[in-house]
Amino acid sequence: MSYFILRAFIFSIFFSSLTFAESSIDKELLKIINDKTRIEKNSNRDKFRNPLETLKFFGLNRTNSVLEITPGAGWYTEILAPYAKENGKFYAAVIDPKSIDRPFFGKLLARYENFLKKFPDKFSKVKIIRYDYHDPEFSPKIKVDYVLTFRNVHNWAKNGTSDQMFQSFYRSLKKGGILGVVEHRAMENTSLEKQIKTGYMTEKYVIDLAVKTGFKFVDKSEVNANSLDDRNHPNGVWTLLPNLRGLENDEKDYYRKIGESDRMTLKFLKE
Predict the structure, then answer these.
(1) Strand 263-269 relative to strand 216-221: parallel, antiparallel, unpaired?
(2) How many of the other CB atoms lie within 10 Å of CB of 146?
């Protein structure tokens, strides 16, 4: 083989690889993430939360039905709902404020609903499912392709509802459905008491919980890892962005440089 033929062959392989890499990125998902109408403080967190890489790891596509668990103020909803709007379905499971005598949950739900109303072109097809704080069960009539939850497991561990939540995830998924979990990551062998206190959970706790429920552990990703986070903060994970809880002004710059928490990203299958 001549030098010129060999060089042409190598270049063809190189550019074919580039084309494949570009095509493997969902352009519609990328468009939504880069949408200039996203709330600025949300898009500023992309560098910590890596939505494109995270959702690609989970295997999500536009035709899927997705149930997001306790979406908070709607950070991931802002991406997931528009993505599923035309060809898929998006549900948000929220705590029913009537099920617990704590005004916080009523305010949180009102904030989320106002957020949806503010952008009707994006969120007009969002379906909200309210569930009981003490006895979590999502609509048994709904079977989805994906259940996704972001930075919530520590709350359920504290409330003592982790088992019920994961059982509800399992019942809500179709056979072959995927559970995707992102959670603050503790050092292994951290006591459960300290996990709950700091908001950092061990991978073992989450994996054991899911497997015990009936899920098959598929894979984990380091896409949301943060080597700067030593997990040793005065107010646990809430010391870091976006909370900066309990810090004096002269301390905040130090913690801003750390960024958000080190996180596990786990994928499970309902066989």
Answers:
(1) antiparallel
(2) 25
pLDDT digits (tens, 9 = 90+) for 5-59: 544 444 444 444 433 344 445 899 999 999 999 999 999 999 999 999 999 999 9
CB-based contacts of 45: which residues, under 8 Å, 6+ apart?
Answer: 75, 241, 242, 260
Amino acid at 151: R
Do the Cβ atoms of 25 and 52 come closer than 8 Å? Answer: yes
What's this model's pTM, rounded to 2 decimal places?
A: 0.90
The CA-based dihedral angle spanning residues 110, 112, 115, 116, taken in that order and rounded to the nearest 10 degrees: -110
**CB-based contacts of 206, cutoff 8 Å, min separation 6:** 153, 181, 183, 264, 266
Q: Is 184 within 8 Å of 262 (Cβ atoms)?
A: yes
* Beta-carbon-side half-sphere exposure of residue 117 (alpha carbons within 13 Å): 6
